[in-house]
């Protein structure tokens, strides 16, 4: 009995924020041929895209900000497990992040990584390449500039997802729809978050840069709010065209982040912060670095007692 790629990826990954399932077979027809089916836990809510569209204007209070950071932390922790297992998801997008409602009344529920149909194992020698990709195996809008299918492609997609998520938090459904229209432009297809210049070099989509500049003014300066620090993570560590020259040494546990982290209470400034160092150069981060940065944001809440 042949096994499906999605099951092969899932069977080695166990994390509370990873959508899990079991593989079975059912006999059909007179010859008793086996058809495979993958039984997955029921997503009783919806995916992240549907969740955002069903709440036109979320109330951006301290609780929702904390909830959002917690869920992003869970996703980054899950991605750590994925990458440590030498697996690349390959198609991260809001539609593949599922929301599971619990007994509480949290708006976001528990977000989990789903749809592992394009997941693939990475070999120890896999090296990212800085070549331009037009269409790869994943969803065009969330594909990175490089053509290689490395794990760093997942981190670019996470940057796209977090940026769209922040647009929804700050400006609601209408803002998210406007962001999509402006970043797609006149193209009849979904445009990626980067564009290719006349010199064949890649850079961040100009409309996306304009939105991030506007959001930076809205959320305060770097270190003033949790959302401003989250935006800094996106700009300096995720939506980064430059890849590390040595993927293995780009990050190690405890590596200082390039920002001062503060807790966000909308319209409230904070004076507490964590001093941090600087990265030697700007290159796309790995999930462990993203996880530690998000943990710092939440740790500040325990210090200030603001949430």
TrEMBL record:
Coiled coil: none annotated. Residues 1-307 form the Protein kinase domain. It comes from Fusarium zealandicum. It comes from the Eukaryota. GO terms for molecular function: ATP binding; protein serine/threonine kinase activity. Signal peptide: none annotated. It holds the Pfam family Pkinase. This is Protein kinase domain-containing protein.
